Amino acid sequence: MYDEVLVRSLRHEDADSVRSLDGRILGPDRSITWTGYIDRFLRLADVEALPEAPWGCFVAEIRGRVVGFLLSELRGGEYGMPRGAWIMAVAVDPKMRRKGIGRKLVDELVTQCRQRRVPELYAALLPGDNEATLFLRGCGLDPSKSLAIYSRTA
Ligand SMILES: CC(C)(COP(=O)(O)OP(=O)(O)OC[C@H]1O[C@@H](n2cnc3c(N)ncnc32)[C@H](O)[C@@H]1OP(=O)(O)O)[C@@H](O)C(=O)NCCC(=O)NCCS
After folding, report:
1. I need a surface site. Which of 18, 58, 60, 142 has the fewest CB within 10 A?
2. Cα 64 to Cα 8, 60, 68, 94, 128, distances in angstroms
């Protein structure tokens, strides 16, 4: 049945469907769904003057209904920082989880990275976010050897 899932690039007209799906992701899932980012991003994607859909952003749809999305951006290259696609948000309709849709979205990003010779994919998680950790590991992402993140209390 889930062969019916189509993963395709985010289009300008998907913004409302993505917002509405994001709005249905509540509770503990919310903290790791970067609402502010998603809205800022979609406002950019809404700009019809953009010549094409943003790179590295996809929706998963079943019979025309958006059931998942992945937004990423290219970063790095400066100061010797590794170049990579950062997964900024990935989410699947709560009723459609554990059917391989999230992995299909990540696989599409891997394919696009290979086509563009982007060597790595990154994702940052909150510590203790076990489900997201299991998901990322299930998609082949391991703790990074190429990047260290530092912080201090301001
Ligand atoms: C995380 C999320 C995107 C996963 O989407 P999904 O479509 O259910 O994921 P998939 O079915 O493709 O799972 C792929 C693999 O990840 C792992 N996985 C996914 N969700 C998991 C969970 N809740 N617990 C344990 N392992 C999990 C499994 O190894 C799974 O493979 P399997 O089902 O063959 O065992 C979805 O749960 C979600 O939208 N969560 C809320 C938002 C969020 O946390 N986003 C950040 C993720 S980094």
Report:
1. 142
2. 11, 9, 12, 18, 35
Ligand 1 centroid–CA 151 distance in Å is: 28
Instruction: Please report, for the domain that includes residue 82, its CATH number.
Output: 3.40.630.30
Q: Of 69, 53, 87, which Cα lies nearest the Cα of 20?
A: 69
* Count of the separate structural domains present in the chain: 1
Report how far ligand 1's centroid is from the alpha carbon of 136 (Å).
Answer: 8
Q: With respect to residue 90, please indicate whether it lies within any of the assigned structural domains.
A: yes
Domain that holds residue 66: 2-138
Q: What is the pLDDT along the chain (154 residues), one digit of tens a residue?
A: 556 999 999 887 888 898 888 888 876 666 555 566 777 777 766 655 555 667 899 999 999 999 999 999 899 877 888 899 999 889 999 999 999 999 999 999 999 999 999 999 999 988 888 999 999 999 999 999 999 989 999 9
Pocket mutation for ligand 1, best pick of 90, 98, 109, 144 (most atoms within 8 Å of C-beta): 98
